Every structure is written in structure tokens, then in C-alpha cells.
Amino acid sequence: MPQVDPASAPSAPLTAVVTGASSGIGRAAAERLVADGWRVLAVARRADRLAELAAATGCQTLMVDVTDQASVDALVERVGVVFEGAVNAVVNVAGGALGVDRVDAADLTAWEGMYATNVLGTARVVKGLLGALRASGRGDVLVLSSTAAQSAYQGGGGYNAAKAGEHMVAGALRLELNGEPIRVIEIAPGMVRTEEFSLVRLGGDRSKADAVYAGVQHPLTAEDIADVISYALNAPHHVNLDLVTVRPLAQASNSQVARDRGL
Ligand code: NAP
Questions:
Q1: Binning pLDDT at 50, 70 and 90, where does residue 188 land?
Q2: What is the pLDDT at residue 1?
Q3: How confident is the model at residue 12 (pLDDT cuts 50, 70, 90)?
Q4: Which of 86, 106, 140, 174 could bridge to 136 as Cys pair (CB 3.0-4.6 Å)?
């Protein structure tokens, strides 16, 4: 359980915007923060899934496309209404991978899509909500990057580049905010088995998506990452988990995975 420092524990519930909340890690993070006592505004593009999340948790929701400026402007406006213009945490989970093409066969439209979501989407949401984070007096920007940001692998070029870009945005922001009460937290997971990540990456091919996790008994789950997010956000505010790399036991690097070993 996260250690909440009673001396710095806030009296009113903390507030968070969670992007990518319609599935996988974002949904688990939204659920976990609500369970931790936070007030959550959960956002993504799919209304039906957001409605289901709202019914299950009581959180607020809004349809947001992080690649669209007008959509993010509407999010900023909503934060003004539901959280009275002040938000404690902006949890940037929206993103993902499109394809596994080698550089010599790169689908550059898909690469642009990955950059638009992972890099520009995160930057757009953070830029829009920085005023509300400052207004809170106790702010956190959390960026869900990936171990794909840390080392390249064959067929990973487009996603490696996008997640490395997102990592750099977090790094620059941390320097720029130094001296203000806003932490910049980056969480970089390795293999997480979520319902959609590999399916989206591999164009909906179920057997290819399942093969990613073949022989790995315990890949990370969305709930494992939500645990880390919860710890990072609930830790005493002077403690900044600057960069957390988290992999399943079976995985030693992006390309070395012990399969069929009962791990
Ligand atoms: P996921 O289940 O596919 O979730 C992706 C989420 O992003 C969905 O809620 C999706 O919702 C949202 N999203 C995508 N494009 C969006 C857009 N333009 N605007 C708003 N929301 C958008 O995948 P996941 O495994 O939970 O991944 C979440 C994050 O973790 C991603 O950034 C991914 O790169 C990162 N990550 C995943 C793994 C892994 O192995 N699974 C490992 C490391 C890092 P809508 O489609 O409803 O908009």
C-alpha cells in the first residue's frame, strides 16, 4: 500500500484526469484511483466503454481524442467545471503501437499516428492542463511511456521513436517545472498483457496478438501497472518516482523473454 504521509495528507479528495481510460492500463488506473479515494475524470474516444466505467466506479467521464485540439480544449473546459479549475494529477495513458514494420517497409502513416498519439497527444493534454495543475498547489504529471523508449528492437522503430519522444517530453518538462510543486513521473512498463494493446498493434489479428505472450505464464497486468501508478501518486509529495521501469519476471529486455519456464 502507498505510504501517505499524514502531515502532508490533503483534507479534500485529490483529483485526477486519466487519459486512455476506456481499456487496459488507463481503465485500471482510473478504477484504482477511485478506490484510493480520488475524484477521477476518465477520458478516451469510446463513449460506450466510458459509460460502463462510470457505472462501475462513479467516476466522471468525457469523450476526448488527444490528437484533436478542439477535443482537448473541451477537456480543459470540463476540468474548469467539475474540478473548479484545479487538478492534482494528469495521468497520460492514451497511446499505443501500430504495426511491427521494419524501417525498410515502414508504413509512415502509422508512424505519424503513433507520434500524434503518444508524443503530441501527451504534450497537448499536459499543455492544456498545466494551469489547472498549478492552481491545485500539489500537482503531478504522470506519463506512461514504455521500455520501448529505452532500447530499440527489430520491427519496433516507429513505436521506439514515439515512446522515446514521449520520454524526452517528460524529461524536458521536469526541468522546466523544477521549483514548482509539480512532480513529473514516468512509468515505463515492459510486457503487459492487456485486452487490446497487441490486438491494436497487429491489426486485429488475434492469433498474432496471443503469440506475443506465448509461454509467459505471468506477464504484467493492467492492475500491476495501476498499483505502481497508485503508489507514485499517493506517495508523500516530496518523493518523486522520476522514472520507474517495470517488467514481468520472465522478461530481461525487450527482446529476451524466458518462455515455457513457468514464469
Ligand atoms: P489499450 O488497452 O490499447 O489502451 C489504449 C488506450 O488509449 C485506450 O483506452 C484508447 O481508448 C486510448 N486511446 C488511443 N488513442 C487515443 C486517442 N487518439 N485519444 C484518446 N484516447 C486514445 O493499451 P494498454 O496496454 O492499456 O496501453 C496503455 C498505454 O500503455 C499506451 O500508451 C501504451 O503505449 C503503453 N504501454 C503498454 C504496454 C503493454 O505491453 N500493453 C507496455 C508499455 C507501455 P479509445 O480507443 O477509446 O480512444
A1: very high
A2: 45
A3: confident
A4: 86
Q: How far is Cα 92 from Cα 16, in angstroms, rounded to an integer? A: 10
Q: Which of 71, 98, 192 best tests ligand 1's pocket when mutated (most atoms within 8 Å of CB)?
A: 192
Long-range contact list for 135-139, CB < 8 A, 24+ apart?
A: 135/85, 135/86, 135/87, 136/15, 136/86, 136/87, 136/88, 137/86, 137/181, 138/10, 138/14, 138/88, 138/181, 138/237, 139/87, 139/88, 139/89, 139/90, 139/180, 139/181, 139/182, 139/183
Task: Give the pTM.
Answer: 0.96
51 lines ligand 1 (CB under 6 A): no
Which class is domain 12-246? alpha beta
CA of 8 to the centre of ligand 1 (A): 32
Going from N- to C-terminal start, the domains of the chain cover 12-246
Distance 179 CA to ligand 1 centre (A): 31
CA of 144 to the centre of ligand 1 (A): 9
